[in-house]
Amino acid sequence: MNTPKRSIRKDTRAFTGLEAAIVLTAFVVVAAVFSYVMLNAGFFTTQKSKEVIHTGVEQATSSAQLTGNVIGHGWQYGYVNGSGLWNTTGYRTYYAWGYSDDSDKYQADTTNLTVVEFYVQLSAGEQPLSLASNQLTIGYSDVDTHVGSLTYADNANASSGNMSMGCWNYSWVRGDGDVLLEVNEQAKIMVTLPDYGVTATKSFTIEFKPAIGATLGITRAAPASIHKTDIVH
Fold this sequence. Notes:
Helix content: 10-25%
Number of domains: 2
Number of strands: 15
């Protein structure tokens, strides 16, 4: 009796254990790399979002705030020792009032409010603010006049008000003497209004515009009766 022969063929359709392990390892490595890329992208996006939010809050929040009253003065322009000051070309150089050695430097202008002074300090939680003229802009506007950037006056008596029209200057009430407004410091900003100032009851706005942070707008109205010194509301 003939016994049937068995056909032994090589079957290549199955994975060996080693091959399966290699494929599995490859999948795990690819998944790990993909996960790292996704997580890294997520962390980057989160960080950028935090930076954008921080910058937005910084720009939307005023770095400085008013402290105390806003003071207005009806001081006559062009008064120096009763006669006015003329330059070498024959044109008058106007000042808010006379120099510090004048017997009565505060000459009244009862028609116009010509000078405004206010006090600022650093807002809570804000970084030091530079009061340097290239870092801070003071603007002015009323119904008839707009000056986006008043002139910084750096003459020796500017902090006492000896400035031409449309100028500003600062001095320290409390500070360490540098140009930075820091925690627990206070500065006085003095502004000589352009175009001879404003008449009684007329509204005006002074804009305190630092390099970083929102503009601090100060809107007031000249008093009904103007004196050498008034609190303006």
